[in-house]
Amino acid sequence: MPVNPDMLPTRYSLIERARSHNDSKTWEDLLDYYESFIAKILLRMGFRGMDLEDVRQQVSLKLWQGLKSYQRDAGRARFRNWLSTLIRNAAINWINAQRKVGREFMLQSDEFERIATEGPEMEQLIEQEWQRHVVTLAVENLKQVFSGKALEVFALSLEGESTDSIAAILDLRKESVYVLRTRVKARVRQEIARLQLELEGGRHE
Amino acid sequence: MNESDPFYEKSLQKIGFFAAELYADAEVPTSIKEARDDPAPLFHALKSIPTRYEGAERIGRGGTKEIFRVRDLRSTREVAMAKPLPSLGEDDFDAFLREAHITARLDHPGIVKLFDMGVDEDGRPFFTMELKKGRSLREMLWEAKEGGEFPLRRRLSILLRVCEAIAYAHSRRVLHLDLKPENVQIGEFGEVQVCDWGMGVVLRPREGELEQTEVFLDPDLYGPLLRHSRGTPGYMAPELSEAGRPKSIEMDVFSLGCMLQELLTPQAPDGPEIPHEPGDEVLWAIVAKAKKKNPARRYPSVAGLQRDLSRYLAGYSTSVEHAGFFREVQLFYRRHRTPCLLVAGLLLLIVAGTTVFFVWLRQSREEAIVARQLAERSQELYRAQKVEAETALRNYLAATEESDRRIEEQARLTAESVRLLTGRSYYQDDDILPKLVREGLRRLDRVIALDPPPESPIWDRKFWLLFLSQDLKGALETRGGKLDIDEIRDLVALASDYAPAQTESGSLPSPDFARLMRDLAELNKPSRSPLMERMLIYDMQFPRSDEERAAILREVLAAVNPDATEVDLTFDPRDRSLVVCGAKVRVLSLRARHGCSDLSLLRFLKPLRIVLKGTGVTDLKELNGLQPVFLDLRDTDVGVLQPLTRMPSLQEVKLTPGRFTEEELSILEKRE
Q1: What is the pLDDT of residues B143-167, one digit of tens each?
Q2: Domain boundaries A9-146, corresponding CATH code
Q3: Alpha helices in B117-271 (DSSP H)
């Protein structure tokens, strides 16, 4: 059975390509994937307006530097951990720098306390957000392949609805629900795995 | 079309809840075979068939596929082979194969035949069809424009063949949806064939089970077939571009009407409008009926269009042959004069009798027709109204959703601005706080009037402000009393305890307020200290006696000095003198806590004479913001006198003799 070369395990990930060719266009593509995620996290941390923009640039810079030296063989689970520590540390460094020069900033002190003291929880939160980010990207990429109804079949099956009740809710036949559920599930899984490979630099072993 | 699909956002949100599981599941390494499992079954089922075609000469190219002339080695004949465009990938293959599957359902001389489907050595799908030598109707129309001969009768008979083919397809529940002269092939011997079923769909059956392949052909289950393929603007029924609208037979009827229009004029139609052209009124009436904007007013089936066209064609042909018939009759009459006269007389009688009968018959038939038209019209009206109502409902829902989104955003921004308003950086002066609180409540209420969603941060902000201003009953009624919010769970419990004590004037009696302050301090949460301080500030506007305020302050000092076994405080309002006792009383302000001011808690009594003799106070910053005239610091561990220089009102300070050097004491002199 011939296999799509895109799926072969020897394929370079986006990170590896960017690093091995040191190509600034590839770097920009890669960072684009992270930018929106970073902004979301900083918003959750309580940053606003110009401050948010400022911290975001700091984090992006750190991420850029970090990705260049990041060792892929450390494994994917470590990647998430590494990413969340990096973001949190960059945020704390920024706040401390502002305090040192006595500059007022919009962040409430309560929230800073949370960032500073609730480290593990904060990192866990960032990790969860990252997972959500990857899954959202994957589903959005599949919009061209499946209709919204098809995705809804999958969503309902995740929520534990039975084939019969999904068929009733969406006014589809049972056979259709069954076929769709299997196909969307396989395709979503494949797309998430692809994004993990691309964005986290891991490999299918 | 994707963007308007109402399911996407909803499903995306639902799927998002399971992000962690999905993410983890995808991380588990899978064998490649397993990953190949199911993504394109139509395509993979075909993969094992060996190739049998030779040579490839490209003879056409469409929006999604290329057509080649190839030689079929098995049946030793030339066939047309369709392949997806090289730019298309595996995600599009099933959509490509659907055309082949749809064509395979149809067996009719007016529809191009499918021979074979397969996967080539590059792993890409293809299908083969019969290869006809000939031209498309489009090419024939071009030639006619250049002055070639293409009589109306011939054009109409071609259209009639197209109608027959489409009527057959509809009987197999297949819609073409891209009918136009380009997709009608005319063979060397005049055969007419409809091709290019790439946009086609299979309608859902009314009853009964589906075959397996039909599941894959169901239009409900896939996204836009191929993002590059679109209908042809001039030939597309207007409702075809409405997202979510079920595909219907009337859409093909519309395209057939367009085709008839182009056959009558040299111009291709460029919209639903019908030009005013000279020509046969009957044919233009047929065009008008087929192209009605409201699908319910079109021919309900292709058969109706077909019947009208045949009738027209029949009338046309008899009128052509009329002259010949008359000449024949004349010849006959001349040959048999007498028998002819007799027969003519008899015929006249019969005609008179039957005429009477027919007049009567026609009357009753007309009545029936009027009744039927009435019924049809009311049904049309009903359908039109239903569509209108659905459209209105859709628009209303879209508008509500947009305004909900705006309200949610507004609520979020207001909550944020109110939070800043009562934040440390905004009030330098205690007196301003009550104004800020009132302003905050006013802003919140303005947004709450818009009915924001229950998960908005606006609710715990409002609760927080009401709690701050001691309106605990009001606070408990926030969000209709549904206060199951994690962030304020502790405060809700306190509010429930103390609300019954709340007086008519809106404040708590002093002993209750004092205990509430102590309870707040004992929650031992950093985020509750700012609330406690702000409550003390706000409380200043309630009428309380100095003794009551002293009692409240005693509780607060006891709470912020948890190590002190003995805390006492006496206040004499006559000379505003304050005596604090307790060897371990060290803290007189909240300045060590986040979000609190660095001012002394004693400021709430406005003392002029302060005695701290024998207390644990070591840092005079604990007295920040006070303006006493007399200060007794004997028997304390106060080390630095510098802060006293910020008290211009100070006239007398008592210190432990010998504790400070002359030099240290000299800063007090500088003050004077």
Answers
A1: 888 887 888 888 999 999 999 999 9
A2: 1.10.1740.10
A3: 137-145, 152-171, 212-217, 249-264
